[in-house]
Amino acid sequence: MDWYGWVLVVVIVIGVMAFLAVGVRRRRRRGAVVAVDARPTGGRRLRRRA
Amino acid sequence: MTLLVRATSLIGRPVVTLAGDDVAEVKDVVFRTSAARLLGLTLNGRGFLAKPLREALPWSGVHAVGRDAVMIRGPEVFQAADDVLAGVSAVDRNVIGDRVLTDEGIELGTVTDVVIAVAAVAEIVGYEIAAADHLRQRRGRHLYIPLPETLAVSGEALVVPAAATRYVRDDLSGFGVAVDDFRASLGKEP
């Protein structure tokens, strides 16, 4: 493979890793202050903001 | 000594053992409204790509809450997250953004934070609110409202006694005294 083939491989690998990293960060939602005995209403607001 | 901390200031704080291991970071702050008590903290792993942990930190396992870290004796104090959360979903019961009404039907604003008095037990002593317009003009944008030792379970809005508005403060300094005065005044009412 020529040198530009290797450059393409490196660019693709970096792109895939960045994509996965962003996905994992998004799955880590921001923390909440949770009242366990509150009626479940706040979640709709939280999801709308997210 | 009692230390007043905002619940959101705990979120993201590292959890460190007395042996010096940085084992987790705080994700959610979990409390029970009816008892005004902090139950514990749910956790994320440490590091850029770390996932939420299945274990949580009950308040009984906390050794100290410092400005920069939550200290624990060791990871053996962790419990299953479901035990600390009493089986409910954290996403569904976030109180930040909830409306605060007095028991006389006056809207005070929306919750921006929960104030915790940290001592041997961690007690929920007040809400920080983004003040409603009628309060904002007189008192400022962010206010602290003291809470009684027991509260009704929250529904669509959080309801506080109307007497609490007399003990509102615009910063945390002196808020502990305002809470004590407010609770003492409730005891004196017929």
What would you note in describing this structure?
The complex is a heterodimer of chains A (50) and B (190). With 50 residues, chain A is mainly alpha-helical. Helices cover 66% and strands 6% of the residues of chain A. Chain A contains 2 helices and 1 strand, in the order αβα. Chain A is rod-shaped, with a radius of gyration of 20 Å. Chain A starts with a helix and ends with a helix. The model of chain A is unreliable at 42-50 (pLDDT under 50). Chain B has 190 residues and is of the alpha+beta class. Chain B has 4 helices and 13 strands. Chain B has a 7-stranded mixed sheet with strand order 6-7-2-3-4-5-8. The interface between A and B is medium-sized, with 23 and 40 residues. Strand 1 of chain A pairs parallel with strand 3 (22-32) of chain B.
List keywords for this structure.
heterodimer; A: 50 residues; mainly alpha; 2 helices; B: 190 residues; alpha+beta; seven-stranded mixed β-sheet; six-stranded mixed β-sheet
Distance between the termini of chain B: 32 Å
Low-confidence stretches of chain B: none
Report mean pLDDT of chain A, rounded to a whole number.
Answer: 76
* Poorly predicted runs of 5 or more residues of chain A: 42-50
Q: How many DSSP-defined strands of chain B?
A: 13
| DSSP summary: helix tally of chain A | 2
Major sheet characteristics of chain B: 7 strands, mixed
Q: Determine the fraction of residues in helical runs of chain B and give it as a percent range.
A: 10-25%
The oligomeric state is: heterodimer
Proportion in helices of chain A: 55-70%
How many alpha or pi helices of chain B?
4
Query: Beta-strand percentage of chain A?
Result: 5-15%
Structural class of chain A: mainly alpha
Q: Which secondary-structure class do the elements of chain B indicate? A: alpha+beta
Please summarize the sheet with the most strands of chain A. none
